[in-house]
Structure prediction request, 813 residues.
Amino acid sequence: MGGPASSQVRISTTPVLSSGDGVDVLVALNQYAYDHHNEDLNAGGVTVYNAEEYDLPEGGNYFGIKADELAKSTGNARAANMVTIGAVAQLIDFKLEEIDGFITQRFTRGRPGDDEIIEANIKAVRLGVEIAKTAGFTVGQLEAPNPPDYQQIVITGNAALSMGATAAGLNFYAGYPISPATTVLVWMENNLWGEGRFVHQVASEIEAINAIIGAGFSGKKAMTATAGPGFSLMSEGLGLAWMAEIPLVVTNVQRGGPATGLPTKSEQSDLYTCLHPAHGDIKMPLLAPGTIEECFYAGALAINWAERYQGPVILVSEFGLAERGENIRRPDLSKVSQESRATVSEGDTGKRYDSWDGSTPLPGMPVPGGPGAYVANGSEHDEIGDTTHLPRHHVRLMERRFKKLDLLIGAHYEIENADADMIIMPWGSSKGPAREAYDRLIEQGENVGWLYSVALNPLPEEVMTVLKSGKKVIVPELNYLGQWSSLLRMEGVNAESITQYTGLPFRPADLVTRISERIGAGVTA
Amino acid sequence: MSKRNPEYDFAWCPGCGDFGVRRALQVALEGYSVEHEEPQANNVVVAGIGCSGNMVHLVEGDQPFGIHGIHGRSLPIAFGVKQGNPKLNTVVVAGDGDFLSIGGEHIGPAANRNVDITAVIMDNGVYGLTKGQSSPTSAFGAITTSTPLGKIENPVSPLNLYMSIGVTYIASYYSSKPRVLAKMIQDAMNHKGFSIVHVQSPCTTYNDTYDILKGKPKEGIKGIAFEIPEDHDPTSVEDANDLLSRPGVPLGVIFKKEGKSLEDRYQDMAARAPKRTNDELLDSYLLQ
Prediction:
């Protein structure tokens, strides 16, 4: 049956950047839910509780609803959720016509009985409204909607990154179910169809990584998606892909770790693992989108990067983005580039694993069936991929593998107030709450700067310049070790973290307090 | 040192069974290309790790495309190669340690899928490259460097395993007659679906089984390898199981079941699949 589940809706006339500080309306369907989320309520907030399950003593900021009973009175017992929605709509002054319109659209399916269902649901909404009216609470009025002048889509992070990768030409997907990455596999199984495309659920994450290695070798733009435990299983395969220079993308939708950890909670604790997933000298190209919209573009860029530098790319998402549905600007697919690896032609004299110092375009990668046969080898190898132990080959190919990273440019970054003494640099989904905190701090007149990069390896030159300026860099991140700031310190950056490891996202208000403390402590001198 | 690459610094020990398998594989690859009028470049050899894995570098003739991957994962890699481009003749070469121990978990899924690849297994009953440890097919009680007091696990019975797990083409042979073995490998390549040619390929350094396999009449040793009787019907499950219940190493095709491969089934499914452009897909998310 599973365990406790919750979902949150945040409504705003400007783009929503995070899940916010607290909630104005809490709908608690059982005592457990009330006990665990009561404290999330903002001052002036109201709880709607399920009076069929439990009771609360008189006098609090709450009222009970018997949604099932009321739903039955409409002739449709399944409309209980609509009773509750009616009550919430009344509390926040949400236009009922919008709800009626949604119901009508949702249940107009060309089936007999559609009209009765629509009528019952609309009636259920009104019953909820009446209950809330008699309870006497409100939580204020919503501002008038302010729709943008561009087309919008409503999409989750996992669907957005799947869509982005597909837009860049993804044509091979192998995966294995694991929370919170499963919906990428499901998306692919439903949508990655058509000439030259292949999608399959395989027997393990080990099979998934090795299958996409084979597919990348045979010419496909291949991807898999997984979460922490599955990513750990892919370590050895990622080493092979790096060593043999096979283009592919591995998406890690992070959850809490280690081991099975917190499968359905948010954490940013796989950064070390994603950068250095395998033994040996390896540093993976890494893209970490921080918003739903960035998930789309990072999905596309990951595929393009893999093709461009002929190697594996890690796309790092998080539970906090994976299942978050959000309205974003509809991407213009004609502006999404589709890069394809350089290949070889009959008569080319170059070999697959020639030395490369970056002064010429990266030599092409032979495609099986065509000219330039070679062995893609996980052992150190010579020019055609035969195993070798000769020092000169290990030296020249080690340098080639790292030099190729220079090709990986073009990811989104943001730099603001770089002259400030202290700079806030979140990564991944902590961008949202950090940005809200930053805006509030600026409003308060604090002298802080903003730095953000979707690419964490390699970092864009412009971002590196700010980091190397010696300013104090504060990294809000959802892990215990302060992983990103420690990696920055390795590069000589004056960085420190603000960490949280609760399995929950940051709240902007907490970040404002904690960043202010750093300012107050004279950190910025 | 290989004929193609004088700098290549790996060699099998003198007398290694893998030499015979190499000859057979080369003949089979060339024969398959000629038979299907396809370029040799359409052949992809996916190797595991171990002595056998070096086959991909040592096979003579034109250089095939190859992957020398990681220990035990040749089957899923080959799966990806084949689904990535179903026109490629995809062959796995692996040893008994690679295929049956660390890689054992992949045999079942490959059989369930009936993926159209051919695995040529070199079984020497020992880990040779790491100098003589017990392998899945080492005998019970075998003294090896990792079982100095004798192996206390029962050996894997590879042919029975393949049969029970649903492999649709199973052949067994030894490395000593490359011409015959080559025909068998080519036949396996032509089989639509997952085929395994399991070859006894003795290790002359750590587990020399030539005499046990072929016998040595002068010393009164009767070989355990035996020709499969002419009346054996490889399409019969009953015949195959009868044959596999006999002691010894059968030489020939044990089982062969015609049917749809994964690639066929995938095409059938793709015909039923929704067809939407990327723009149509994106429009399904439009805010109403």
About this structure: Chain A has four domains: 23-135, 154-335, 342-408, 413-520. Chain A touches chain B through 65 residues (CB under 8 Å). Chain A has a mean pLDDT of 95. Chain A has 18 helices and 18 strands.
